[in-house]
Amino acid sequence: MDQYPRDPAIGWPEVAVLPVTYLCNAHCDMCALGDLNQRERLSDDRLAEIFGHASVADTLRAINFTGGEPTLRKDLPQLVARLVDSCPNLESFSLNSNGMLRPSFERIRGVIDVARSRGKKLYLFISLDGVGRLHDEIRGVRGAFEKTVRTIDAVRALNVPATQLSLGVSATATYKNIDHLGDVLQFAVERDIAVSFTFPMETDVYMNNADRVGRFHADREMVDRFVAFLDTLEPHADRISPPMSFYRSLQATLRGERRTAPCIFQRGGFFLEPTGEVRPCWRSSDLLFGSVAENTFEEVWFGDQRRRIVQTIEEDFCSSCPSPCYVGFPSPLLGPPPVVGSG
Length: 343
Hints:
GO terms for molecular function: catalytic activity; iron-sulfur cluster binding; metal ion binding. This is MoaA/NifB/PqqE/SkfB family radical SAM enzyme. With 343 residues, the protein is of the alpha/beta class. The protein is 33% helix and 13% strand. It has a 9-stranded mixed β-sheet with strand order 6-5-4-3-2-1-7-8-9. β5 (165-172), α8 (181-191) and β6 (194-198) form a beta-alpha-beta unit. α2 packs parallel to α4, α4 (76-86) packs parallel to α5 (104-118) and α9 packs antiparallel against α10.
């Protein structure tokens, strides 16, 4: 980034979220990405060019590979390897999967091999919204639970050291499972893996769920029940992800108080859609920095549109956001931005 000196007021890329495809084999209550049947995406060469450029590669420390369903891509391990190799300062990367495809485990194992061969820690989260048929119902796939568990147990059987792989399950709360989230917690405890809980968020981008709010909409009663459930996590704090401090903050946020958990995406992260749009996150379609299908990443990152968003995102969006994305990620960009003109 020699051409662009690091300015804490606007930040620099430390974390990237990359959906490697928007195609998905599930039909979840809280997400309709699969309905889009979106096949258009940036070429792997273009992705390697973006992630390998100094404006990204010099400072990027973590990448989240997600979807859609990433294991739909036969070349997933190869793509992961190529982008990880493009970023010399990368410390870790993560993968989200529903684990339901027949080849899911083999492709996940390929990604694990990439992490181990390069000395990077992999954080792997498999979606699990309930135990038994409840998971099938929420995911809209018959036999989803059995298929997911098969993948989880196959990964566990690899016996990869915890210093190299963190395996966990992630659940999204809906009115269908709000009284059964404890079953997911118990599942994680019995298998000695991590567990994460997410409160559903309506968005007009990414998850494409604005037209199915009725399937996951949270009324005041559901909010109160979720807040009460979070109180039960404390005895299992060593396996809860993100840290318990986030869930305490989330309880307050859901009660209408201002979010206190800092977010790396305000000044230090970006969400790159398969079609090239660059956003800080997927909270709203209003949060659009620009497109790398039309401009270079540097032009997008340092452009006027991004600068305007950085100045207003905390007040307009972050202060009420329930998302746990990369909470706890250490960075000098988590502090208040410097005041213009201060010295």
